[in-house]
Each structure stands twice: as structure tokens, then as C-alpha cells.
Amino acid sequence: MKEVEELAESFGHPETYRALLRFYDVRNVGGVQALKRSQRLWEITNDPNDELLWITLKRTFGVAPRYTRQEWSPNLDFVEAVWRGAGSFDPEFGMRLAHAWDADDNDSRAADICLEILRIAEPTSEVVAPCIQWLDASDRATEADLIIEEVKNKLAEEPDFLEAWARHVLRTKNKDGLQELVTHPTIDILRHRHPSVAARVYLKSGATEEANEFAVEALREVALQGPASRTELREMAELFRELDRWDEFEKLASEFPSPWLTEIRHQMGTKRRVRRS
Predict the structure, then answer these.
(1) Residue 69 lies in a domain
(2) Which helix (H) or strand (E) element contains residue 220?
(3) What is the pLDDT of residue 69?
(4) Would 271 be classed as within a structural domain?
(5) Mean pLDDT, to the nearest integer, of 164-178?
(6) Cα-to-chain-centroid distance, residue 237
(7) Could you tell me if residue 76 is inside a domain?
(8) What is the dihedral of CA 215, 219, 225, 229, to 10 degrees?
(9) Is residue 182 part of a domain?
(10) DSSP codes of every residue in 55-70
(11) What predicted TM-score, i.e. pTM, was given to this entire model?
(12) What is the DSSP letter of 46?
């Protein structure tokens, strides 16, 4: 195999690369080795409809977390071209590609992939929820509004969609959207899935009593399970500051990682209160 790889690199013949990719497929060779050769074949032929490229990508392409990335990673324009060509917009692979664009800090391209999937496939929460998130992050709120309007009757009982919808109306400060959510029959699903988000929806819609009730639920949940991330803890801090219940948050937060709290206090311009005896 090494000799064939050297021949491919030296002479750049498409058929040599194809022979390599077929060999990789039989031997189940994946990772950077297979991806590099498939990308090189595409660069030589500029043919996104090559079935062998699609077979290789479908078997080997995945989204690596930022902290595990190697020095080389595939050109996502290449992956996208083959997905559209030989891959025929396969929805499952398309979401892999969308998450790869997201990992590459390109939310707008990730959203575009989702929109293409939604044009040819039935909407699912797994596609719609991140699509709304990426559209919002790309300042494309109007497109997110249109998607929500199209799918909310179908997906209103899906927790991921409900959370994405709620975060969208909070971000855009859409008063009609907030009122629709608090009166929607599936609001309890959001309350159980993410009580702090439900609390913020009620607070921004003017229902302070319900907001305080849900905030307490969220506080209890975090106290039992601990915050999943800095983002979750920061959202909780923002909620309790808006409710003028900062002392309750501080009492809870003293149990959590100190660097997170220092960062949150700095971001919010809040100093830790020192008790005097």
C-alpha cells in the first residue's frame, strides 16, 4: 500500500488515487489518510459526482472536537461539493457537515446546509433547532422567524425545538412571540426541559410571578445536579439579577467552580459581597 501511496503522490494520476481509495474501503482504512487522498482526487478531477469520493466521505468524515483536532483537516468546500453532487443532499450526512461548519466558526454556512436539508426533507427537531441557533448567531433572524412559523405546529412538542424557539424570541425581543409561547399548551415541556429559559420567557412577557416560580425550580435543579457549563451558570446569574434575587444566586453559586464565578461577576459588573461579622 505504501508504494501505491507514493506513486499517487508523485504522479497525481486519478486512477492511482481511486485504487487507493478502493483499497482503503476494503481494509476499512479511515481518518486523515483516507480523507487526504479523497480530497486530492477531487482537486485533480474537480468532479463532485464521483461515487468513490462519496463512499469514502460517508464512511470517514466526522466532526472532531476543537481540542482533539489534528494539524490537517479536510477542506469543507470539498466535502460540501461532494455532498451536493454524489451525496444527493443526504440529510444525515448534511448535519455532520453543518456541525463541521459550526466547529469551524462559520455559523452562516452551517445554517445554509440546514436550509438545504429542509428544502428536500421533512423538518425534524434535530435539523430545525440548530438551524435557528445558527441563523440567530449569523444575524439572520428573519429567516429563523419564517422557519419557526412553518414548523411550530409540527414540532411544538419537541423539547429541542421549543428551547430554540424560546431563545430566539428572547434574543429578538419579540413581544408577540413571547405572548404566544407563554400561552402555548406545550410551555410545560419547556418548563421541565429548561426552567431558567421558561422563567426568562415569562419575565420578558411581564408574568413576574410565574418567572419567579420557574426560577426557583431552575435553582433547585442546578443545586442538585450542578451547572453543565459556564453558559448555563451565566444564564442563571442573569436571571436572578433581573429578578432582584442576586443574594440567592450567590448563596448557591459558592458551591461551584470559582473561576466560573469570577468570570461571571466580571462580565456582569457584580462584585462578591463580603459578609462582616
Answers:
(1) no
(2) helix 208-225
(3) 57
(4) yes
(5) 96
(6) 23
(7) no
(8) 80
(9) no
(10) HHHHHH-----GGG--
(11) 0.87
(12) -
